[in-house]
Amino acid sequence: MIIQLFIFLLFGVLFLVVIIFGILEPIYLLLFNKPLYIHWYPFSKKLKSNQRQILVNYFPFYCRLAPKRKMYFEHRVNVFIANYQFTGKEIFITEDMQILIAGTYVMLTFGMRNYLIRLFDKIIIYPSSYLSTVNQVYHKGEFNPKMKAIVFSWEDFLLGLGTSNDNINLGLHEFSHVLHFHCLKSNDSSAIVFFDAFNEVLKYYSDPVLKIDPTKNNYFRVYAFENQFEFLSVILEHFFETPRIFKSSHPELYEHVATMINFKEE
C-alpha cells in the first residue's frame, strides 16, 4: 500500500512538472517574454556577516535589492563557490576573492533561473597579466572553452570592481562571453529570452543605419566594435557600471539588454 501510494505521488509530481514546464511556461514565455519563475530555494544558504559586508562594499547592485532578493543573491553566491574550483597561480586564493568573483557572476545572471553554466568548471587566478597558453600573448582575462576555465588577472579584476564609472569591468566582461556561448547552445527559457533579445541588440552592431558610430559617441569604447562577442561584453559592462547614462543616451538598446538578462530595476 505504501509503495503504491509512493508511485502514485511520484507520477503526480511528474505530471505536474510536465504541465508546468511543457505547457504553462512556454505560454507564459510567449506572453511575457520571461521565465515563469526565477528564484525558488527550499533551503536557502546565507552568507556570514563578514562575507555579506564584502557584497555591501563592492556591489551597489546588491545593496539596492529588497531584503528577500538579497537572500536569493547570497544563496547563489554560496552555490557558485561550492560548484566551481578556484585555482591560484602564484597567488593564494582567499575567501574574499571567491566572494567577489561569485558576486560578479551572480549579478550578471541574477535574472536567469538556470544560472550555473557547465561551459566552465574552474576559475584560474594570476596575480597580474599572464602569458596565455592559447596565443602566447599576455592577457588580463579570458574564457578558455577547451580547458573549461575562466582566467583572471587579480590586479585587473580588482581594478574593474574598484572603479565603478569607467565601464571597464574584467569580471563582467569575461563572464559575459561565457553567458553568450551558453545561451547560443541552450534551449532553457532564460537562454531563449537572451537569444531573442540579443538578436535585437545585434542590430546596433551590424545594421548600418542603427550601428552606433564610436567617432560621434564617446560613451561606448571603440573596442566594442571588434566583433559581436566583444560588443555584447562591452555593453553589459556599461549596463551595470553606468546604467543611468546608458538608459538616457540609448534607451531602446538599454531596454533590449534589460530584457536579454531579465533585469528588473528595484
UniProtKB/TrEMBL annotation:
Keyword Disulfide bond set for record: no
Keyword annotations of the record: Membrane, Transmembrane, Transmembrane helix
Domain of life: Bacteria
Annotated TM spans: 6-31
GO molecular function: aminopeptidase activity
Annotated CDD domains: Peptidase_M90-like
Keyword Iron part of the UniProt annotation: no
GO cellular component terms, semicolon-separated: cytosol
Record-linked Gene3D superfamilies: Glucose-regulated metallo-peptidase M90, N-terminal domain
PANTHER family membership: MTFA PEPTIDASE, PROTEIN MTFA
Protein name per its UniProtKB record: Zinc-dependent peptidase
